[in-house]
Design brief:
19% strand, single chain, alpha+beta, Beta-Lactamase, Alpha-Beta Plaits, 5-stranded antiparallel sheet, 9 helices, 3-stranded antiparallel sheet, 3 domains
Amino acid sequence: MGDMTDNQSSYNQVFRRAREIIENDPSITQEEKNAILKLIQVVVDTASASQSTLNAGETSNLAALEIISRYSLLSMVKQQADELDALKRISLNLTSSLDLKAVLDTVVTEAMRLVKHAGSAHIYLYSQEQLEFGTSLSINGERGIPFASPRPNGLTYSVAKSGEQIVAEDIRSHPLFDGAPLDWSGSIIGIPLKFDNSIVGVMNLSRTITGQFTNAELRLLGLLADQAAMAIFNANRHKGLKDLANTDSMTGLPNRRALDARLQEELRYAMRTATHLSVVMMDLDGFKTVNDTYGHSFGDEVLRNVFSYLSEKMRATDFLARYQFVGEQTGKLEG
């Protein structure tokens, strides 16, 4: 009788200790805590009924091991489920648009969701060994505002040039941040965005706290980076094809298709605001004679020089295009 009383007392101690641990774990929701505590109570009751032949110390250890095992399994399953859910959401969001800005905004939004204590997320596009600001998202919801320009020997360029992930667990003490403003604090990770062995960008994610990123956070950020790199590549290719379809291959000016689209936009704006719109059409007299006399290559160079001169004289609000119809015409819209 005394042994059974001792066993029950041990079980109660284990249960109380487990409750304290779980109640103080901020990563578990209240609903999950209630479910875990019910599971622990079942384990304790089962051990109490089946381990009467063991002494109090043995049963206490067995119950504790069982609780830890069940709790660890539940945590692992929950983590994997969360990761699969995050990966599904990321895939759906990143494949829903081919617009580069929309893709970049989606990436930083997802990055901020994946990491606890996230402070800000930045993406820089990388091409020809140069970084160009893509987008950003801060903890207070501000978008599209660069936190700082990448320094030649700073984190972002180091990640882009090395192609390797870099983690600064404490910005204040990390050598990459020597000379950084005194108000920079916390931790940060820089992740290369690679597609087909090429760096298309760098994603930086800062936290308001110092210390290591968890394995789950690193794994999910790596998956996001892979998906983001592919989405950025596809968006850039789509933009390139779209630009090609709207560009005159010889002069590099917008073509007739682009002019027609811009003309419709300007007409709608003029009608809505009751303002004036002017269209200037220019034709090069005697251009056929130039081609016939000096050849088409020379004629092409003449066109490029003319268009270059016109471009230099235009205002920022004007739109210059090559409008080929019969002969050679150049269209210019003036607002």
